[in-house]
Structure formats: C-alpha cells, structure tokens
Amino acid sequence: MMQSFVQKFILSGCAALLCIYIIACNEKPSNAKLSSIATAIPEIATTTLPNAAHTPEQCIVSTPILYDSTKKYIYLTFDDGPQHGTTYCIQTVKKEQIKASFFMIGNQVNDVFLKKLVASVRNDYPQILLANHSYTHANNKYIYFYHHPNMAFNDFVEAQETMNVPFKIIRLPGNSAWINAQSIKASPLVKPVCKMLDSAGYNVIGWDVEWSFNHKTANPVLSPETMLQFINNAFQKNYTHTKNHLVILTHDRMFRNANFNDSLQKFIDLLKQNPNYIFETVDHYPNLKKPL
Fold it and tell me: What per-residue confidence (pLDDT) applies to 94?
C-alpha cells in the first residue's frame, strides 16, 4: 500500500516536519461528577487522515486556507471536556458535518474510556480539533493560579503532553485572552503567563460571544434563536477580535440534559441557513504563529 505524505516524510527521517503541540471558562466539573461519564460514552467512529495514525511520532498537519472576503467565519468551541455532554456534542458536530474545536482539561482524562474519547477528537481532525484548556483548570482558584505564572505555564505544558495535543493553541481557564503572531491582548492578571506562552511559541484563543449557562443546572440560559441574533449583531457591528471572524464559547455540559439536547443542533441549523457563514477550527484563525 502506498504510504501517505506524512508517513513518507517521517520514515525518511525528515526532521523538518515537526509534531506541534497546542495549549489552547468557567468552572470545571469535579472528579465525582466525572466518575460516571465512562458508562455514558459509546463507541465513537473516527476518521483519520489517509494511512496516518496520529501518534507522537506522526504529525497532524494544519493546511492553510484562503479566506473568502465575502464570507464570515465561525469558530464553534466547546470547553471543559471530557465530561457529561462531550459525546453528544461530538456526535452532533459530525451529524451536522461542520467543523468545531474542543478545549479539554488534562487531569480529567483519568481512565481508559475518557482517553479513548479524547483520542477520537484528536484523530478526527480536520473536522474537529483537540485543543488545550490547561491540566488543572486552575483548580478553580484563578487568582492564585495566574499570580504564579511559572506554575500556570507548567500546567499548560503538562496538559499538552498528557493529551498529545497537536497544535500550540491554548484557551486560558476563566479568562479571555488573545495571543497570535502579531500581538498579545490580555488583562494584567494573566499577562505574565501570556508573555511566557508567547515566548514559547503558543497562540491563545479567547472568545467573542459566549452561550452562557446556569451554573447550578448547567442548562443554557439563552435560546438558539437569541444566540443567532447575538452572532448576527456581532458581525454587523464588528464586535469581534478579528473582523469577519467570530469565536463562540460553549461548554459540553450545557447539552447533557435531555431537555436541552436539541438546542445545539437547532443553533447549528440556524447558522447553516446563512450561506455566508463558514465553520472552521481554531487552527485556521487568522494570524496565528506558524509551526516551528
């Protein structure tokens, strides 16, 4: 069988093709809540690049895209997985045949079932992207976490390694910040660790619109129709970090309740009705640092 492009480079010993790791907001679920997730995770079919097994020795390659100036790009992102709701989100994204990004937490990948779930996200690139949301989620002690930037930096690196994240993209827990090849936009609290991440070649992705949720029930507090209005308004008034590019923050657990399972699908269907909206993964967000 003919070997894939990536495999040929690896087998020939080409050191120029490097595997890149990403470090890509709210509360994270407790380990007690996570303990029963394994029983709720069915087999998930995965689609890989031709003949390419995504191991640390083999690279997932992000291919640059050409932006259409007449289109508007949507980056649908899910935070805090793996947890209740993650499987449903993955299945819905695949069913709707759109692209999305999952920012996951390293220390929640604590059994074989959750490792398999994370691997399914990693291996289904380019449709879905595995990104890094830290190892501990700051243990929900954000002030302490960011007041110790060395500790915070190492936390992201640990998550990067344990989950085998493919690109250097991070989302900070509990804080919206942006780092790309051109600039850093961060609050004084998180700027020290952002500077360290920037020096290490990482990108940081914040968000433009959040689909908020009730922190007691985890249910979304806005309807899909209201969210669509927010998206349309943000584009029309240029309320985005980058013009014509909009990052949506959601959380996997928002859709774990059977009464809200269809909210995500309705939201995606509404967005798909606009022919000018294109779904992309966050590795295609403009002006990110290039792989070393």
Answer: 97
**CB neighbours of 201 closer than 8 A, spacing ≥ 6?**
168, 289, 292
DSSP E strands, the chain: 72-81, 100-104, 128-132, 169-170, 178-179, 184-185, 203-204, 209-210, 245-251, 277-279
What CATH number does residue 67 fall under?
Answer: 3.20.20.370
Q: Which has the closest alpha carbon to 163: 126, 187, 129, 140? A: 129
Mean pLDDT taken over the chain: 85
Q: What is the DSSP pairing of strand 184-185 with strand 178-179?
A: antiparallel
> Hey, what are 269's tokens?
């269907």
Q: Work out how many domains the chain is built from and give that number.
A: 1
Residue 150 within a domain = yes
239-266 pLDDT, tens per residue?
999 999 999 999 999 999 988 989 999 9
